[in-house]
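User: I need a structural model of Antibiotic biosynthesis monooxygenase from Caballeronia calidae for a docking pre-check later this week. Nothing fancy, just the predicted structure tokens so I can convert them on my end. Input:
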Amino acid sequence: MSEVAVVALFVAKPGKEEELRQVLEANVEPTRKEPGALQYDLHRDIKEPRRFIFVERWESEAALAKHGESAHIQAFRAKSPDLCEHGEVRVASKIL
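Assistant: Understood. Predicted structure tokens for Antibiotic biosynthesis monooxygenase:
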């Protein structure tokens, strides 16, 4: 198994910043308890406060895939069209 890193970026629709923040924050603790979760940190862009960024590390792509199937992530996906203007998830493998 090879560790993977994830950077997930979500931009709130205007006026939905705090609602999106609450929904994203609700994912942190359950995700940190998932098997294979090594790091799961939520950040907010200092200059663009509508932009939220997750920095994640997972033991494997399989662990990340199970995360995507979790109830809390499925709930977020159901709410995200109303809250997010843009979302992007990048998965990478470590080189050095």
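Before docking, keep this in mind: The first helix runs from residue 17 to 32.
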